[in-house]
Amino acid sequence: MMPAPENVAISEAAAEVRPEADPVQESSGAASTPLDTTSTTTDDVALARNQTSSWKGWAEIENDPVVFSTLLREWGVPNVQVNEVVPLDSVFEYPPQSIYGLIFLSRWAAPETENDLTEPPAGVWFANQTLSNSCATVALMNIVNNHATINLGQALNDFRANTMNMTPKERGLALDHFDHVRDVHNSFATEFDKMNVDLRLKQDMTAAEKKKKAAQSKRPRKKLKAEDESDEDESGLHFVAYVPAGGVVWRMDGLERLPRKLGVVDEGDSWIAMVLPELQAQLESVTTNSLEYSLLSLTALNDSWGLEADKLKVERAREDWGPFLAQMVRIHADKGTLKQTLG
């Protein structure tokens, strides 16, 4: 969800993937007027959808297992479901072999230990997060792309094959250019969400430029260091994946350059048991500090009885009342009845 810190991942990546003609992401609704609900046609709706799919940013999405399951299905992965793990020992409700990975959400903090790896592990698919707000998708991709038995559908199968020999940074950049994945991710965002992302991007660019100029000036180094520390305190919520691949259990944080090896898992052993101590420690930490957290599991779809209910929930989650509300405000403002309507 948060952008890659300069000292952890790849801060220059955002500039590399941004279109040359415009250094700032454009939201399809950033410069448009509210929709006229009295004259909207099906052609207008189709045009709006085409505009939405052209947006190159990543919007924040809700931390909801139904939303995550829908992402997978609409990417072309039909037989995987996402479940909330509450309490922690409920993860054992599923056989370990049917659990493809875990995703832990908490406030991001810089790692306290060095990574033992110095090179990307062979045969393991791991992508860096190169743009803000894409960490949910990066975590999902870092799990499903490491399971050859999962039916990913043609689009994701081709993507995995084409990116397997890339570096983690190159995979992250390729993911940012993968319109099919990004458009499904952004289908849960409103135009207001996209406008907020664009605004934050402009603010980040301004802050980065000021920081660069300050570093080039003759101000005391001590003051610069204090500013760096204040920036690190503004870290946000972030998704991290845990996944078995190649006989090893990995902690995959897209904000780190490489995955972290948790240990070797022998055939027949439970890889979940290897992850539990670390998860338990993290849960105790966030609970003590009253921080938000969540744990999700990716498992084989064991039944489809809830798919229709999920579909209705997703339809509601995708409803965007912003244009309608903006239009109603404009109508009442023109009539002079806005104050009366608002009470």
Describe this structure in words.
This protein has 343 residues and is of the alpha+beta class. The chain is 44% helix and 12% strand. The chain has 13 helices and six strands. Strand 4 and strand 5 (260-264) form a beta hairpin. The longest helix is centred in the middle third of the chain and has 26 residues, at 191-216. The model is unreliable at 4-52 and 221-235 (pLDDT under 50).
Short descriptors:
343 residues, alpha+beta, Ubiquitin C-terminal Hydrolase UCH-l3, globular, Peptidase_C12_UCH_sf, Papain-like_cys_pep_sf, thiol protease, ubiquitinyl hydrolase 1, ubl conjugation pathway
List the helices and strands and how they pair.
Elements: H1 13-17, H2 42-53, H3 65-75, E1 80-84, E2 99-107, H4 135-144, H5 153-163, H6 168-176, H7 179-186, H8 191-216, H9 221-232, E3 237-245, E4 248-252, E5 260-264, H10 271-288, E6 294-300, H11 307-317, H12 322-335, H13 338-342
Antiparallel strand pairs: 1-6, 2-3, 2-6, 3-4, 4-5
Number of helices: 13
**C-alpha Rg (nearest Å):** 22 Å
The CATH architecture assignment of the domain at 65-111 and 119-189 and 235-302 turns out to be 3-Layer(aba) Sandwich
- Which word captures the global form? globular
Strand content: 5-15%
Examine the coordinates and then state which fold CATH places here, giving the name of the CATH topology of the domain at 65-111 and 119-189 and 235-302: Ubiquitin C-terminal Hydrolase UCH-l3
Helix/strand class: alpha+beta
- State the distance separating the first and last CA atoms: 37 Å
The CATH class of the domain at 65-111 and 119-189 and 235-302 is: Alpha Beta
Helical residue percent band: 40-55%
Strand order of the largest sheet: 1-6-2-3-4-5
What is the CATH superfamily of the domain at 65-111 and 119-189 and 235-302?
A: Peptidase C12, ubiquitin carboxyl-terminal hydrolase
- Strand element count: 6
